[in-house]
Amino acid sequence: MKRKFHLALDWTPNVNHIGFLVGLEKGFYKELAIQLEIIDPEDDNYKETPAKKVELGKADAALCPTESLISYRSKKKPFPLKAIAAIYSSDVSAICTLGNSNINFPKELDGMTYASYQARYEDHIVKQMIKNDGGNGDIQITYPDKLGIWNTLLQGKADATWIFTNWEGVQAKSKKLKLNYFKMSNYDIPYSYSPIIAIDEDAFSLNKSVFGDFIKATKKGFLQTKKDPTDAARILEKYVPAYDKDIDLESAIRFSVDHMEDTKDWGKMRIDQVNAFLEWIHENGLEQKRFTADEIVTNELLT
Q1: Sequence spans of domains, the chain
Q2: Superfamily of domain 93-187
Q3: Please, what is the angle between helix 208-227 and helix 229-237, to 10°?
Q4: How much is the pTM?
């Protein structure tokens, strides 16, 4: 008997989703009687975030950053969002500026414009990075349509934004466009995992077998990607929007798999790494409640 499983992506199909797409194409989900249905945020132009779709029961799982787990558990009416796997073992994101902008350090963003995704802690994190580099954190924040944020940088409508170096970074390289990257870890911010696979902890408790099979097929898809990046690029090409066809997909995949764990440890989240970020969030006044990693993540399905 087939079991439907809805996965809400955090962006239009790209390299961060390759394991799911490979799993679909190779029949890994079908082998475990899971009918995976992917929800593309372009369908509603990001009217609802992936995590919100889980809260509303429109998705069984969502891709989002670790911050979403904290945000949903600390709101007025808490929702038990929990991570069951991380796509990457190390951070592949960064704040970036154009290479010809003369903004070579975060402190030089004072007085400049930052295009924000309006995530709950995002603006505070960026301002703190600037302060940690010796600036004042006096940046102008704009909130363009989420799916068009990268273009605001390319079009000169913003001076900086947050990107995935394995996607927009590869696209920039394909366009022979130089970018400056400011990594969180280089400026005393112990940033955590992104993206993670998040689910409703209550639903998880009631039906672990479905989530377990979903993760099993997903892990197989990402490990197959590591094994054959060329074939994975062929699969990815079927799914990416037309405007992303100029990206060297195989280069993006090869870049990405270098940040994924191998067979035994794929998807696992280090408790100490998550706790370091949670403590940073609390100490910097971004969240009054002190959460622990055990409350928001589990590696139970990855053993």
Answers
A1: 3-89+193-302, 93-187
A2: Periplasmic binding protein-like II (3.40.190.10)
A3: 110
A4: 0.96
